[in-house]
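From the pipeline queue, job 12 of 40. The input is one protein chain; the requested action is below.

Action: predict structure.
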Amino acid sequence: MNIINKYLLIYYFYNIKNNLFNKIIFVVKNEIPKDTNIILSPQIYLNILKKKKIIINELSGYILIDYQYSIYLKKKIKKKINKL
């Protein structure tokens, strides 16, 4: 996968008092826009993992998703946020 030329969806996650929080960062050519950070619930995160084969680097906590799927996810997440 050519990381530099793809629009990637990168997750990193951390534990606070046994609660899992998930943060999404949309990355374009390895530059991180400041306005695209979204916090996901663990359930949404697990659903995403189930639906798509995702490359996981467990050492860094990064999860990379390809361009087409990132577009789909971004639309889906926006709909969920608009409902709140």
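Job complete. Confidence is low (pLDDT under 50) at residues 1-42, 53-64.
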